[in-house]
Specification:
Distance between the termini of chain A: 42 Å
Shape of chain A: elongated
Strand content of chain B: under 5%
Structural class of chain A: alpha+beta
Number of strands of chain A: 10
Helix content of chain A: 10-25%
Strand order of the largest sheet of chain A: 1-2-3-4-5
Oligomer: heterodimer
Number of strands of chain B: 0
Strand content of chain A: 35-45%
Order of helices and strands of chain B: HHHHHHHHHHHHHHHHHH
Helix content of chain B: over 70%
């Protein structure tokens, strides 16, 4: 898996990756702010190309990290290298019927799983740092932060039951 | 004043149409100028105001080019730049010079035509690579480095050919002293410049506009090559914060450059001194042909493959902003008309060649090897 990057004057930055199966993937961060992604199958001559906005590229990036459960649930994981590679994951979930009508306190989210709810989106309104007595409704999207193990526990013990 | 407004409106209309069909805009600005000006309806003429705005267009084009030049990056990629660049330079300058000389241009004029012949349009090459989605091609890197080499040659031309009032050595020494002083000012004032650029009021744009005009005025006052100084200062400022200077100067560049192109067209007399349509066409066709010769030669040298040559050719046919700049700075009436015609023809042919280069390649040369084989050939 060879990765090379090069700065092309007037165009932008190019990243080219050759996979083990000899397919080629190249990503160009253009000066316009858009991103062109080329994929070239081994033995093929003409690549297929997609042009993405920065936002679309980030979305694609989080899909490729393998963190997405469903289309409307996604997560990002990042490492804070200054704190001996502390890895933090932020994940979104959609509130189902089983949890609706209960508050954060009632569910004992932090005590049971270690996960913290940092934001909730209901319709077109967002609540940042919801209070402990915040009551969920079905269809709310919540944003949870924690280690990936904690989030798995949260998903298994609280969101699903 | 009404003339400028009329010219700008014509350009706006043309830009709307050409962008819709993904065609390059530069040739159409020049055509608009030709139609409105001396060669056509004679509705608009150049005056002091248009001359000033045109001058700004040229300054911002050069400043922008300076910002893009990264000396360290060029240094690191010398081998990629120099070999293909020299082929491009030799073939096109020689063919261009011989063609112009054979068609009866005097020696200096033939040299100016040769320079304009050589310099492809960086703007059009880059746009066509991105819009035709050809960035992954091995050739696109070669093309990008070719453009860098051509830019360096433009700079050399601007340093050495100019209105010389002093002894060349005196100019050189003066230029060097000014460059060193500017470099020191930038070193010392770096933090202040960054502070100004970070602001969100009128200061960043005011700074950008006034440094470009300031350097131009200073150069004229001291009798040192103005165009070169603007590029060099752009390169120096590029070491501080290229993105922010680009963002600030882009609107100036965009609008003044359009004025530059349209007024170039307006002031050109297409049939100056009885130059025939045949001569103009001959020069333009030779310009398309000479890039074919150099493209194939570079393709064979770098990619060991004539098909690569076709790609390089297709994306470098278009002559544009720098050819016009050379004409505006050094060209006589006849040379300007020849270059204007050549830019129009080559950029329109170039736009189509770049789009359909794959099909053209199949007609002209044997089918290419796959990219992988190409890689293998390079490694061995």
């Amino acid at each position: 898996m060879a990765l090379r990057s090069i700065n092309l004057p007037g165009i932008g930055t190019k990243y080219e990756l050759e996979t083990e199966k000899n397919d080629t993937i190249a990503v160009f961060f253009l000066k316009s702010g858009n991103i062109q992604m080329y994929t070239l199958q081994n033995g093929c001559q003409t690549p297929s190309v997609a042009e993405l906005s920065a936002q679309e590229a980030r979305r694609l990036g989080s899909i490729l990290t393998g963190a997405i459960m469903e289309a409307d649930q996604e997560s990002v994981e990042f490492a804070v290298s200054a704190l001996s590679d502390l890895r933090i994951t932020i994940h979104t979930y959609v509130v189902r019927k089983s949890v609706a009508g209960k508050s954060i306190e009632e569910l004992q989210i932090r005590a049971k799983t270690g996960v913290t709810i940092i934001a909730i989106s209901r319709g077109d309104k967002n609540v940042i740092n919801p209070p402990a007595d915040f009551v969920f409704q079905e269809g709310d999207t919540l944003v949870a932060i924690g280690e990936s193990d904690q989030l798995k526990r949260f998903e298994r013990d609280i969101m699903v039951t | 004043m009404q003339g400028i407004v009329l010219a700008l409106l014509a350009c706006l209309l043309l830009a709307l149409i050409t962008k819709r069909f993904a065609l390059p805009t530069i040739p159409f600005y020049i055509i608009a100028g030709l139609v409105l000006g001396k060669s056509g309806l004679d509705l608009v003429g150049g005056d002091a105001v248009s001359a000033f705005l045109t001058h700004l267009g040229l300054l911002f084009l050069l400043f922008f080019m300076g910002l893009e030049i990264k000396p360290d990056r060029i240094w690191k990629n010398q081998s990629a730049i120099v070999s293909s660049g020299l082929i491009d330079l030799n073939i096109n300058v020689i063919i261009g010079f011989l063609a112009a000389f054979a068609l009866g241009f005097p020696l200096f004029d033939a040299l100016v035509v040769a320079a304009a012949f050589f310099i492809s349009s960086t703007a059009m090459a880059v746009t066509s690579l991105i819009e035709n989605r050809k960035l992954l091609m091995r050739e696109s890197e070669t093309i990008v480095w070719l453009m860098v080499f051509e830019d360096i040659v433009v700079i050399l031309i601007l340093v050495f050919i100019g209105p010389q009032m002093d002894h060349p050595l005196a100019i050189l020494i003066k230029t060097l002293i000014v460059l060193v002083i500017l470099l020191m000012i930038i070193r010392v004032g770096k933090d202040h410049i960054i502070w100004v650029l970070k602001r969100d009021d009128e200061l960043p744009v005011l700074l950008t506009f006034s440094v470009v005009l300031g350097i131009s005025a200073l150069s004229l006052y001291l009798g040192i090559p103005e165009s070169f100084m603007v590029i060099a200062f752009g390169t120096m400022l590029g070491t501080i914060d290229p993105v922010s200077f680009e963002v600030q100067s882009r609107p100036f560049k965009d609008v003044f450059l359009v004025i530059f192109f349209v007024f170039f067209g307006i002031t050109v007399n297409l049939f100056a001194e009885g130059i025939s349509l045949l001569t103009l066409a001959a020069i333009s066709i030779t310009a398309v042909f000479s890039k074919y010769v150099s493209g194939i030669a570079i393709g064979r040298l770098i990619h060991k493959n004539a098909h690569s040559g076709i790609e390089i050719w297709a994306n470098t046919i278009s002559r544009g902003e720098f050819s016009i700049a050379i004409a505006a700075l050094y060209g006589s009436a006849v040379v300007s008309s020849a270059i204007a015609f050549m830019v129009i023809v080559t950029s329109i042919i170039g736009a189509f060649a770049a789009k359909y280069s794959g099909r053209i390649g199949k007609v002209f040369v044997r089918p290419p090897r796959t990219v992988r084989e190409d890689d293998a050939a390079r490694l061995t």
